[in-house]
Amino acid sequence: MIKKLGIYACQPCGVVAEALTNSNEQLVCCDQPMAELTAKTSDEGKEKHVPIVERRQDSIKIKVGSNPHPMEEKHYIQWIDVIVDNKAYRQFLKPGQAPEVIFPITDKNIIVREYCNVHGLWKN
Ligand SMILES: [Fe+2]
Fold it and tell me: Which residues make up the environment of ion ligand 1, defined by Cβ < 5 Å?
């Protein structure tokens, strides 16, 4: 297997795709192999991207990031997702919305990711 589950991007056109199965085939777009995105885990600079998880009684609230991330037409959080065991939760967002979401998750062992259209993939 040369490819595993993950988020991939095409450099020339900027399309982002998710591989949901393993495969021996290379993902290709614009006649080039797509690169797997590595989620960044620590913030630098003034814009904050690492998702912050707030646990509630029957849910979790996720905010991007420690200062709310911009949600402008040209720069915004496109989605926030959580992977728990065999389930995935994803909220797509639009410019003007708050960069946050609530999911009905009480599990402790979770992976939280978000995708910024300018700064890429981040996780906590
Ligand atoms: Fe950003």
Answer: 116, 118-119
Provide the CB-side half-sphere exposure for 44 (13 A, CA). 3
Name the CATH superfamily housing domain 51-123: SOR catalytic domain (2.60.40.730)
pLDDT digits (tens, 9 = 90+) for 20-40: 988 888 899 999 999 999 999
Q: How far is the CA of 68 from the centre of ligand 1 (A)?
A: 10
Cα of 118 to ligand 1 centre, how many Å?
5
* pTM above threshold 0.85: yes
Class of domain 6-36: mainly beta
State in Å: Cα 116 to ligand 1 middle: 5
Whether the per-residue pLDDT at 1 is higher than 60: the answer is no
